Each structure stands twice: as C-alpha cells, then as structure tokens.
Amino acid sequence: MATNSYAGVKNSVAEPSHDGEFSCSLKELCSLMELRGTEGVQKIQESYVDVNGLCNRLKSSPIDGLSGYPADIDKRKLVFGQNLIPPKKPKTFLQLVWEALQDVTLIILEVAAIVSLGLSFYRPPESEDCGKGTGGVEDEGEAEAGWIEGAAILLSVICVVLVTAFNDWSKEKQFRGLQSRIEQEQKFTVVRSGQVIQIPVAEIVVGDIAQIKYGDLLPADGILIQGNDLRIDESSLTGESDHVKKTLEKDPMLLSGTHVMEGSGKMLVTAIGVNSQTGIIFTLLGAGEEDEDEEKEEKKKQDGCVDNKKKAKAQDGAAMEMQPLNTEETRDSEEKRKANLPKKEKSVLQGKLTKLAVQIGKDSLLLVMILFIGLKHCLPWEQTCTPVYIQFFVKFFIIGVTVLVVAVPEGLPLAVTISLAYSVKKMMKDNNLVRHLDACETMGNATAICSDKTGTLTMNRMTVVQVYIADKHYRRVPEPEVIPATIMDLLLLGISVNCAYTTKIMPMEKEGGLPRQVGNKTECALLGFLLDLKKDYQAVRNEIPEEKLYKVYTFNSVRKSMSTVLKNADGSFRMFSKGASEILLKKCYKILTASGEAKVFRPRDRDDMVKKVIEPMASEGLRTICLAYRDFPAKHGEPDWENESDILTSLTCVCVVGIEDPVRSEVPDAIKKCQRAGITVRMVTGDNINTARAIATKCGILQPGDDFLCLEGKEFNRRIRNEKGEIEQERIDRIWPKLRVLARSSPTDKHTLVKGIIDSTISEQRQVVAVTGDGTNDGPALKKADVGFAMGIAGTDVAKEASDIILTDDNFTSIVKAVMWGRNVYDSISKFLQFQLTVNVVAVIVAFTGACITQDSPLKAVQMLWVNLIMDTFASLALATEPPTESLLLRKPYGRNKPLISRTMMKNILGHGVYQLTIIFTLLFAGEKMFDIDSGRNAPLHAPPSEHYTIVFNTFVLMQLFNEINARKIHGERNVFDGIFNNMIFCTIVFGTFVIQIVIVQFGGKPFSCVGLTIDQWLWCVFLGFGCLLWGQVISSIPTSHLKFLKTAGHGTQKEEIPDEELEDMEDLDEIDHAERELRRGQILWFRGLNRIQTQIRVVNAFRNSLSPYEGLEKPESRTSIHNFMTHPEFRIEDSEPHIPLIDDTDAEDEGPTKRNATPTPPPPPSPSSNQNNNAVDSGIHLFIDASIPATPLAPVSPMHSLETSL
Q1: What CATH code is assigned to 831-1045?
Q2: Which CATH number describes the domain made up of 432-457+665-810?
Q3: According to the UniProt entry, which residue ranges have a biased composition of type Basic and acidic residues (predicted)?
C-alpha cells in the first residue's frame, strides 16, 4: 500500500518546493490544516493520495516515525518552526521601579520632601513674636543643615521603591520559573526509530508520529493515521461542546489544544507552535504585541504562514471583526465585559485581609486628619509670621503622612506573597506542584478530603493473585499445565489484543527490583498474569499489530468495559471483552468448563458465582475483572458495530480474576493525622462496594464499630433524588455527614457529592472540600472542589488542567503535607499581623500624642520610614518563612469565619502595646532626668538631633526587634525560642536589623536625627528592649478566657451581614466577592493610597491565575509552549458538555446563584463569510466577539485594580 501511494505522490508533485529536502512546504501544510472534515480528506487524496503519501513527503514513516537524528530534528525545526509560542518579555527592573513610584502615599511624601527642601533654603524675616510661637528659631549654622531632612525623606522613599521593585521583580522571576517547571513536566508520546518514547512537548517537530490516548491534550495539529473509537472535544477551538468522532474516512484532522475524550490512535504532526491552529488564533489575538520592526523580521523569517494568516484575515468575516482588537471601541467593550464578569469567590485569606486593610486604612486616615488639625491649632496665628508657619505646616504635613505610611499595613500583601511563594517552592520538594497560589492557603482550611482509591491510597501496582477458571477457584495463580489448551489460547489472544498497545511490562531497572509497569495498571496486571502463565503477549502483538484491529470499544466510565473485534480469514468476527465482573457477567450466557467446552450460564449460576467467588475476593480487597468473548459467524453478515447494546451481549465467560492493589504502608498513619486534625476523609471509587469497604478498613477510613455509611453510586443517587429525579440539597444533607465510602461511582456522582458538601448549610462552618482525581471525567469535580488534586503520574492532561495542585508522586501523604503547609501560611500571616499591629499601634500613638503635646513627633519622618521598612519588608520575610511543624495538625481547621486576629493575639497586641507605650512615654517625658541629658522637647524648627530623642528612637526599635521573637508564637505558647534556628532567614534578619540600627544611631547623624550613644545608654536601650520577652511571659500567664471584652478582627464576611438589596443584585453574579463588596461600600478615595497593596495582590493574582486555566487567565504572552498555552482554554465556552455523562442534566436546574459556571449563552452564528472553508479563523473567533459570553479577563484583576479603573 505504501509503495503505491508513494508512486502516486511522485506524479502529483507539480510545483517545485523551496523547503530543502522536504517536498512539502510550510505554507502547504498550513492551508491543509485549515480544512475540516471531508474537505480535508479530499485535499489529502488530491495532493498526496493518502496520509502515507504525506508521511513520505515529510520523510517520516507511519510505523517507525522519524529517525530521531539530531541533524534531522534541527533541520525540521529550521524549516517548520518549533513547538513554542514566544513569551512576552518580562517587565524590566526600571518599569517595576516606575510602578512602585505610583504609590500615592509615596508621591505625597515626595512632594512634602521637595517642599521641605525648597523651604529650607528660604530665609524668613526675623521676628521675635514668631520665635516664641515656634519654640525659638535656630542659629545660622543649623539653618544650613535644614535641607537634610527633605533629602533624607527622598532617600528613604528611594529605598522603599527599590525594595518594592526588587520584591516584584523576584516574584515575577519565581513565577516564570514555576511556569517553565510546569511546562517541562508536560511530555508526550511519540514514535522515533520504531521506539515509543516520551519527549517534552516543546521538542515535537513536524513529521513526528505521536500516539494519542484518552485524556490527552493535543500539543500540535496533525492528521490521523490510525484510530480506535476516537472522540475529541474541540470546544476549546470551536465552542461546540459535542464530541467529534475522528476517522480516516470522514474527519482525520486533529487540532492542537483539543482534548481526547475517548479512544486512542496515532497522528502525523503537520503544524506546531505559531503555525498550528491555536498558534494562529493566538497571533490573531494580537497576543504577541511585538514592536512593528520585530514583526517585520518575523515576516521575513516565516513567509509561509504569516501570508497565510493575512489571507485568512482578508477572506474571513469573523477575522475582519477580530482586527480592531486594540482600537478604543474594542477597549471600551472589553472594559464593559470585564465589569460584567461573573465574580468568583476570593480565597478565605484574601477576603479577610482586604477587609482588615480597609478597616485599618479608614482608622489611620481619620487619625491623620485629627493630628493635622490639632497641630494647626497649637500655633498662635500671626499675620507677619506666615512664612515660618508654612515651614511648620510642611513639617506637620510630613509627620501626618508618615503616620499614615506607618499605619497602613502595606506589608500585608507582601507577607502573603512571600509566604505563599516560599510555601510553593518548598511544597515542590514535598511532591506538591502548586498551580494556583491560593490553593495552598485554602488547603489549610480543608475540612473534608474526597480521595480516589487506586494509586492514591493504594500503590497502583496491580497483580493478579486469585483466579476462577475452568470451574475452579484458585487462591493463587495456577500452573499453566492445569488450564485446558483451548482456554489458554483464548486467554492469551484475548488479553494481548484487548489491552491498550501502549500498556506493557518492561524489564526491571535494577537488580532484584520488580518489572516496570507502563500504562494502565489493571491491564498491566493482566499482562503480568500471562507472563506468570509462561506466555508471551508481545509475540501475539507483533503478529496482530494495532492497525489490524477491526474495531475497538475503549474503556469509559459508562461502559465500564473494553472490547476489541478481530476479523478472521473466513469473514467471521471474534470480539474479546474485559470489564467489571458484576457488569460483564450479566451479559454472559455461557461459561467455559474444565473440558474447555462452553455451557449455559443461567442467572442462578451467576448469583452462585457472585456469592462464592466474587464476594469473597472483594471482601479481601481485590478488584474483580471478568474476561469474555463472542463469535459473530460469517453467515450472519457484518453486524451493526454502532449498536453497542446488541454487540455487547450473549458473551461467553472465560475466567474471573482477582487483582490486588496493596494499600500504601504510610497511608493509615496519614489518615489518622487527618482525622486528628479535624479533616474527614471519604473514599470515592469506581470499584465494587466490598472491595472498597475492605480497603477503607485497612486504611483506617472505617473503624470497626463506627456508625458510618458505605453506598454504591446507584443507591446514593436513589437517596438524593426526589420523585421527579431532581437532586435535593436536603436529601444530600441527610447522607454526607455519615458517608465514608462511595463505591461504583461515576464522575457525575463524585461531582454531585462535592457540590452537595460545599453547598450544605447544616454545619455552622461552610465545608472546605479537597478532591483527588486522575481521569478526564474527574474534571468537573476537581473544578468544583475548593482544592483539586490531580495525579502527576496516573493523571490525564485534562485532570491536571482542572486541578489546583498536582501530586507528583500520586501519594495521599503528600496531601497531608499540603494541609500542613496551608495551615502554616495562615499562621505565618497571623504572626506577621500580630507583630505589625503592635508596631502600628505604638508608632501611631507615640507620633500622634507626642506631636500634639510637644508640637513635634518624637519619631522623625525618616526614622518612621526605617521602622516601616523593618516591620513591612523585613518582618514579612522573617515571619512568613517559618517552616511548618507537626503540631499544626493537632488543631481543628480555622474555618471561613474564624477571625484572622484571635483573642489571644489581641491580648498579645494590646499587652505589648501597653508595655512599649509606658516605656516610650516615660523616656519621652522623664528620660532627660533619668539619663541626666538635655531635653529634646520643644526644640526649634531645624534644631540638631538630641541624645534624648535618639534614646527614644533606639529603645523603640530594639523593643520591636525583641517583640519579633515574641510574635513567632500566636497560640499562647511559652517557649518563643522553640525551633528558632530552623529558620535561618529569621535569625539573619533579626541580627542584620540590629547591626544596621547600631550604624544608624552611631553614624546616622542629621539625616536620621540621631546622635551617637554611650555604652551605658546602649545597654539601657537593650535592657528595655529585652523587657519585651519577659513581659511576653507575663502576658501568656493571663488566661484569654477571662478577657471576654477583647474583640477579634479580620472575620470573613457572613452572608447575614449583606443587606437584602445587595444580595438581590448579587443573584446574577456567580459568587459573592465579600472583599470587593466591602470595598465598594467604603469610601474609595482614601484607598488609592493603598496602591502598593494593589500591586502586590495583583502579583499574587498573576501568580495564581497564570497557572490557572479555568479560573481567570493571566496575560497570554507569558505562556511559552504551545501546549502550555492551550492549557488555558480562553476559547472555551465554559465547559457546557451536555453529551458526556459528567454532570447530570438535573444539576443545571438545582444550581442556584452559587453555581461556579453560569450557563453560557450560545455563540452567535458566525458572520457570513465569502470563504466557505470552515477554516481556523472561522472556527472559533466569533467566540471572542460576543460580549455575553462569560470570558475570563486577560489580566488578573485585583479588587484594588478594579477600583482604580472605576475611579
């Protein structure tokens, strides 16, 4: 066949090719991939005779693939491009500096500093009266040093800006690192030199033969060479949710970014990177946004496809509409569309933090206004002294703004980001690859985990240990001699061809190890069973290659079986089936006996077999699989293969095997930890209920004597649905609290259970549910869950894409580690808050009262900015990087409504505040007597720094340093030094800050308003600072239960707090965004001063979104490989997949306002186009134009960001 087609090809080559040795140009392949269905088939037949002809033109073999020589691969990359989409350049450091400078508070300070600088060079006329009012004006020499304060403020502003920019820069770098790590994880199976190998997606080249299977996300465009029951979900490109059946005769065109929902096959790769359909749409979207000159260069390089894109644009109506993407009009509609976006509920922590920041900001603004007005009234107003007063006003203004800078906790988002980024980095070592940053924090609140059985709780290394064959139940694998030859032949042929050819058993990697299982583990167990019977399955596969299989019904969650049809030489057919024993036995009407003959198998015999064979196997935790076959005689003609119910019946049972999958040794202990930590573990599995119960007992999910439910999927559905078949929340609420095992469950049941638990209102806390999944159909449940865990080894691309965290070792203990890290993030933020609020309270009160009483703040602007740096940037680094300890698993989850600042923390904040204020005010008003020095109070306007105020400042900073050690514990523990050396960052920062403080005091001079202190004075300052640790012990002795009057702060918003009319407005929204509501309610203007929070939350969001395909998208430019780009299906109409048995149709009716994916409006019909080729542009572009589609924003939008745009 191949030779004929090659001859045909030779004759059909008319035009000369300019692509070196390949007799097929890039342009030709691009135009071929724009065709769909029968048009594509016609074009292939006209130009190349068949796919083999195209393979020959591309110098590839449909069976052996490419040679794999580096020279050949490089040449292909040169001619046809690479499988990459070039990323957008990251922001430069200078751009980040410019962004940091936009902070309103900093701008106010800069203005104040410049005014102060200007006025320091201005000499007001001498007047005795003014002198009295201002506490005496300084002499000539001192006046000349007046510029220093303004310059110092400018310098400290530069410091703050550089630190912020550096943080943002390092976060972006980390984020890109994380992204490239995810990309490197993605591999794809190709055939090279006859060997099946896995290569990174970016290494795929045109001409590769790729093996595709259920659950894959296609990384490139291609043409089907051979397929078994292949169905593709092309909704990410076309918006059509129906699964498209792919066959060689009708529709062999496979497109990048689409999902394989069923079946398997091989494809010839024809377009990659920017030339694939996804890449073209990506280019049309203007996502590259390079400068024009770069575009010109690009055009020169890729003459083929760029022309082709132009042609597509010119020909196609939809594309014409796409062109004005960057015009004003489009931008307006974009804004509107963003404004109407369905809101998704923020993470618990973000909601609480935003609310807290809003509250603090309001309070501090009020305080500054009072301070400014109060100071103004301290001065006796005299007309002649106006110039002097202006200088005072500038001074008061600087003090006021500095108080605001100190009071606003802009370090909060920084602490969150650092804590999350640090956790994410460390979690990678614990086999958790976090895709959405906030998932690790949400995990700390988890109250329920719905786990798969296979691979997560068990080792996913399956072996056949029992078998019922030839009328006898063997407790271990029998010797080959005892099995009749006819049955043995059927077993050998049936297992060899009716297991995916990608599944195989490889030799052991090291001496004394076990053979490696590759592919589906249940099929590996069956192939291992053949090897135990001394038979070679590979010989059978070599004789019957995959291309010779007549028809394959692949396994899916509805069939729960797999069948393969072979055509015999005489025209008859034989079909082999394997599947869940209780399902397949119902379709058997005969069974093979000890003589190898078939006898009738009646329902009574089946019931006996279930009782005597299947139930005993299942109660030992074995998975039971039935193997059967059926003959279709030639005289009856060819059956209708599409009519599955007629085909899969009248089977003859060959044998039933019991497959063991041992429980992982570390799982029972991990589950015990979860239960102690207040987390309920539920097992959701497709296995038989007896098998599931046995495994659940071994794991410790079920304890003997407990009153818990184990249900099968059917029974579960019967209990939760009313007479009309609709799911009722009340019915689910009766079941889920006691449910521990859900067996024989479909992905729909899993989704229903997760949704039911999340939507339940019977417990006072809303449940936070984590779910594990590995199959394509687990997608909806993974997305619905608060945290979705996908399996890194066994998981399909679709499952990974829907998940928040990927378990790189598929192990349940990694989930427990994720819980530990999540709780640690929460505690780190609380530690930081406890420390920062103490500093806030003290600094603001000292500056405020000091300024009111002495008309000058004891802490100068520059000193305040140094304190701000200590408590914001350094403290967030020190406290947010505490490693987790096992003790975190000894408490219950915090829950959504638990305040961030507990009573114990409030007691610590107020207790330490009282101590620090007492010391500072004592020093301020009696310090000069205690140390026998000159008083620094009532100093003239530009007086030199005094020892008095230096001691106040030094003691204040040292108290913060010692209090930072106290802040390490937030639950009232006494030993604050416990594990301090496990966190070297903390030790380094505390020590480093102390050294810098010595330098500032001894050598800071006029800019820092400091004078060098003596050893005695230093010792007193250190002693008073150390007092914080002793005072901490006193505070922890006071029982919190006695302090009922203490308020907590930073709650999550309760639904009851939202006014009815606002709730009505929110009916249309997806989920209530509590934090954003809080913002809208408060005054907005003052909040622009919190611009830095905005920047950092934006980075957190970018971090999260960029790794999040389903929940808001980052700017697409930051995606590098085509495969990674398509894990962000912007072009998808939100998952409406009515034709897959994923989510029951009734779900759509009972999901209220809290439904995550609102039912989308169908896309409008594409505009009539002159070109009727249903080409790339036509196939999906109209999706973007219709504003009614709930598209996700391309840029992460933080609450502050949306505020800013609205302003």
Answers
A1: 1.20.1110.10
A2: 3.40.50.1000
A3: 297-309, 328-344
Position 394, amino acid: V
Residue 607 structure tokens: 């019931």
Q: Is the dihedral of CA 15, 19, 22, 26 positive or negative?
A: negative
Give the 3-state secondary structure of residue 659. Answer: strand
pLDDT confidence tier of residue 175, bands split at 50, 70 and 90: low
CATH fold for the domain made of 463-660: Calcium-transporting ATPase, cytoplasmic domain N (3.40.1110)
Q: Rounded to the nearest 10 degrees, what angle do helices 348-378 and 1074-1081 cross at?
A: 20
Q: What 3-state DSSP class applies to 269?
A: strand
In 358-444 the beta strands, taken as DSSP E runs, fall at 432-434
- In angstroms, the CA 1141 to CA 1156 distance is 19
Helix (H, G, I), strand (E, B) or coil at 1076: helix
Among 966, 986, 1162, which residue's Cα sits nearest to residue 418? Answer: 986
Q: Which range, 319-323, 409-413, 852-856, has the best average confidence (pLDDT)?
A: 852-856
d(Cα 501, Cα 286) in Å, to the nearest integer?
42
Distance CA 388, CA 597 (A): 115
Distance (Å, rounded) from C-alpha 354 to C-alpha 1101?
A: 14
Active-site amino acid positions: 452
The phi, psi pair for 189, rounded to 5°, reads -90, 125
Question: What's the CA gap between 84 and 1123, in Å, rounded?
Answer: 8
* Closest to 1075 measured CA to CA, from 1094, 1103, 1060, 1089: 1094
- If you average pLDDT over residues 358-376, what whole number do you get? 72
Q: Do the beta carbons of residue 754 and residue 773 sit within 8 Å? A: no
Is the distance from CB of 916 to CB of 700 less than 8 angstroms? no
Domain boundaries, the chain: 27-88+184-283, 432-457+665-810, 463-660, 831-1045
Provide the residue type at 757 as one letter: I
SS3 percent helix, strand, coil of the chain, rounded to 5, is 55, 15, 35
Please classify residue 1185 by burial: count the beta carbons closer than 10 Å to its beta carbon, then call 0-12 exposed, 13-18 middle and 19+ buried. middle
Per-residue pLDDT tens over the stretch 268-278:
999 998 888 87
Rounded distance between C-alpha atoms, residue 287 and residue 326, angstroms: 11
pLDDT tens-place string over residues 998-1049: 999 998 887 788 889 999 999 999 999 999 999 999 998 888 877 777 766 6
567 — phi, psi (to 5°)? -100, 130
Closest C-alpha among 964, 951, 937 to residue 1024: 951
Q: Is the dihedral of CA 996, 1001, 1006, 1012 positive or negative?
A: negative
* Amino acid, single-letter form, for residue 908: N
Amino acid (1-letter code) at residue 673 = K
Phi then psi for residue 712, to 5 deg, are -90, 160
The residues, any chain, with a CB within 8 Å of residue 432's CB and separated by 6 or more, are 440, 805, 806, 807, 808, 814, 817, 818, 821
Distance, in Å, from the CA atom of 843 to the CA atom of 332, rounded to the nearest integer, reads: 45
CA separation for the pair 94, 107 (Å, rounded): 17
User: Tens digit of pLDDT for each residue in 771-804?
Assistant: 988 877 788 888 889 999 988 877 777 788 888 8
Residue 548 has pLDDT above 50, yes or no: yes
CB atoms within 10 A of CB 272: 31
Task: Tell me which residue has tokens 């397929």.
Answer: 227
Residue 741 binned pLDDT confidence (cut-offs 50, 70, 90) = very high
Return the half-sphere exposure (C-beta side, CA atoms, 13 A cut-off) of residue 273: 23
The domain defined by 27-88+184-283 folds into: 2.70.150
Q: For 1035-1063, b where at least 16 C-beta lie within 10 A, e where not — what string?
A: bbeeebeeeeebeebbbbbeeeebeeeee
CB 857 within 8 A of CB 398: no
Q: 300: which DSSP letter?
A: H
* Distance, CA of 488 to CA of 491 (rounded, Å): 5
Q: Kindly give the residue spans of alpha helices, DSSP state H, lying in 1107-1142.
A: 1122-1126
Amino acid, res. 1173: N
